[in-house]
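Exercise 4. Each item below gives a protein and its sequence. For each, produce the structure-token representation.

Item: Fis family transcriptional regulator (Paenibacillus naphthalenovorans).
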Amino acid sequence: MKRVVIIDDEAVIRLSLQMGLEDEGFSVWTEETGESGLKRIAEVQPDLVFLDVRLPGKNGIEILKDIKKMNPDVTVLMMTAYGDAQSTVKALQAGAFDYIDKPFELEDVLTLIESVWTKEKKAAELGSPRHQGEQPIDHPPIICGSRPMLDVLAQIRQVAETNTSILIMGETGTGKELAAHAIHACSHRRQMPFIALNCGAIPSNLLESELFGFEKHAFTGADKAKSGLLELACGGTIFLDEIGELPLDIQVKLLRFLEDRKLRRVGGTKDRAIDVRVVAATNRHLKEMVDTGLFRKDLYYRLHVVPIYLPPLRDRGDDVVLLSDHFLKSLSAKLNKNIPGFSPAVLDLFRQYPWPGNVRELKNCIERLVILNHDTMITPSQLPEEIVIEALHQLDLKAAENDCEKASVRETVRPFPEAFHLERELERLEKQYIEQALHQTRWNLSKSAQLLGISRFSLQRRVKKYFGEVF
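Answer:
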């Protein structure tokens, strides 16, 4: 029987989650504080820990670090009701397996637990670093805290252990090669080669021999045989960037390779079986290229099995601040500078600027700032003029939109009654409907939950909250 420890200062959450998990066959212990939770973990040696981010005394991140020192192998799932992206990132970096937002349904919890068991089973089968003490290959970190990018990271973790071809899509500068590195580093191929090829950077007449290799005397100057990049990446991952630039005749050969995992060198007569994972990327609209005959439909669908879309920086919220701090620290160390940081006004301008060149443009901008800075706080006067002008322009557009919205609201919305409080009003209505459903079903929780359109687990929490008991 799997053992679970729940650490949360909210009694309703502890009780309802305990009841739900015990109904599923788990042995469950609950604790109100991080300190008591550590003692319980040392005592029962659980398989799984649910840990709240916000706790009295030591916060959840600090307790997580203590748990990992005590038992590095225990799986920890973070719970938060605050939508705090930075805390979520810190928790994942400190060793949390994943997180779940409050309020949650029991079905969501069980799905998350199932993903834990699946991951651990695969790790055991593959002899992963967790079980053998091996170190994964280093790769640049993906700095993020926004929901769109956290979803991308979750998708990367999910598909990494498969052998399926992956297509990464996104605007230029969004970090497609970084995502490909992450896929490789999270997979069982991590100890094998990772080879990247920019399909648009090599002349079309050389691409075939570069990818597939060639035999001796295959063409003038081929005085010896040479392995192609697909062969060199055998056992590992090959990253084909700008796949939309691949000529149609090479697309045919790549499609054949993806279908039977065999290749034939230029000038050769022998097929060679190659085990390599193909990750492709593009900033072009491949579907439109298919419609215009510039990209093969069959190759598109072969690559499009698992598409991953990288959002532009302008859609990643405060990631621009996290990335700015990261680049400032790394570039300052590289260039032997001691820059205190950015003024708040600079960060506000960074948030408003649309960054058409995405993360690459941001990094180049900060590198320029670091080079020209004399160890002083970075202020708006040091920013490139075009960034300041465009950021202020975007700010003006948003202000105009807000003015229009406010005018519309003033025309249509009635004045609020005195002492109105939205949360109290919502709680009053919620309690009223719950009470009505319970009376109608004679306090049958399952039937009441069905009437209300929520789960029994969710209704238990609310009954405990409003009526002080659970039936």
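Check: Residues 123-138 have pLDDT under 50 and may be disordered.
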